[in-house]
């Protein structure tokens, strides 16, 4: 799971607990101007194939965390419970998408959308 916050025009994702080990990353900082879209989408995390793991951890039905390559995209994952998944599409960043679990998907999506440049 990650905690989302806003700091200095950036979306900050802090990876929580042992997920830092599984994802091999403790945080990400993304300029709000580089966010194309954010949405809640539990279906995206329910499948067993999330791409080629490089580096990261994938235990189907339990945990997906780290960097994965799928369909020509570089995606950062950190999901245990698909029902709390948000997807953040990016431009001009190392990752094409961030697929992460948050405590409250609806509130997280609303918070970020309210701050995105129009």
What attributes does this structure have?
17% helix, globular, 9 strands, six-stranded mixed β-sheet, 118 residues, alpha+beta, 3 helices, three-stranded antiparallel β-sheet
Report on the structure:
The protein is α+β, with helices and mostly antiparallel strands. The chain has one domain (2-115). Helices cover 17% and strands 48% of the residues. It contains three helices and nine strands. The chain has helices spanning 19-23, 43-46, 105-115; strands at 2-7, 10-15, 27-31, 35-40, 52-59, 63-70, 73-79, 85-90, 97-101. It has a six-stranded mixed β-sheet with strand order 4-8-9-7-6-5. The chain has a three-stranded antiparallel β-sheet with strand order 1-2-3. The longest helix is centred in the last third of the chain and has 11 residues, at 105-115. The chain is globular and about 35 Å long. The N and C termini lie far apart (28 Å). The model has no long low-confidence stretch (mean pLDDT 90).
* Rg, Cα atoms, Å: 13 Å
Terminal CA distance: 28 Å
Dominant shape: globular
Number of strands: 9
| DSSP helical segment count | 3
- Please give the order of strands in the largest beta sheet: 4-8-9-7-6-5
* Estimated share of beta-strand residues: over 45%
The unreliable regions are none
Count of separate structural domains: 1
Secondary structure category: alpha+beta
- Mean pLDDT across the residues is 90
Assign a percent range to the helix content.
10-25%
Order of helices and strands: EEHEEHEEEEEH
Oligomer: single chain
Main sheet properties: 6 strands, mixed
């Amino acid at each position: 799971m990650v905690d989302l916050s806003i700091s200095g025009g950036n979306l900050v994702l802090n990876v929580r607990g042992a997920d830092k080990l599984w994802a091999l990353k403790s945080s990400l900082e993304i300029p709000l101007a580089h966010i194309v879209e954010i949405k809640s989408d539990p279906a995206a995390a329910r499948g067993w194939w999330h791409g080629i793991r490089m580096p990261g951890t994938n235990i189907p039905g339990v945990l997906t965390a780290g960097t994965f390559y799928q369909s020509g995209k570089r995606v950062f994952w950190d999901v245990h419970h698909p029902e709390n998944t948000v997807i953040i599409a990016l431009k001009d960043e190392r990752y094409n998408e961030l697929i992460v679990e948050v405590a409250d998907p609806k509130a997280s999506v609303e918070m970020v959308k309210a701050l995105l440049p129009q």
